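This protein record is not my work; I was only asked to verify it. Would you go through it and say whether the fold makes sense for this chain? Here is the record exactly as it was handed to me.
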Amino acid sequence: MNLIISSKLRYVMPIASALLVFGVGSTASAKPMKQCGKASWYKLRGTTASGERADPSGLTAAHRTLPFGTLVDVTNLSNGKTVRVRINDRGPYSKGRVIDVTQRAAKELGFINKGITRVRVTDTSRGGSVQVSQNCQ
């Protein structure tokens, strides 16, 4: 009996290990992420939630849930301009907003004077989009 079990485990264990290591069957990482909503810009002084020194001239942003270091494309839906930013902070904490970007990113997106704009945020590490709320235009 033990010989039969050992023989079967000899084939099952490497397959199970490979599935765990390579994440086969995992749907969470396979789904790309896109989020639509309002963006604002902020002048943070001091240290970000990731421990970095805040830099208004950098291309960084605050997001509630994306891991620090994630690169996202932020597209201003009113003019089509896109900028790639790195998540290094948490927020925004205002209702209806999906991302806070630095002053430089807001300038490049063309909403520095307006302060708030509708955007699409696409996680470039996942390569696509999943609708979060209403349709992006």
Remarks:
- Strands lie at 34-41, 60-62, 71-76, 82-89, 97-101, 116-123.
- The chain has two helices and six strands.
- The two ends are 64 Å apart (CA to CA).
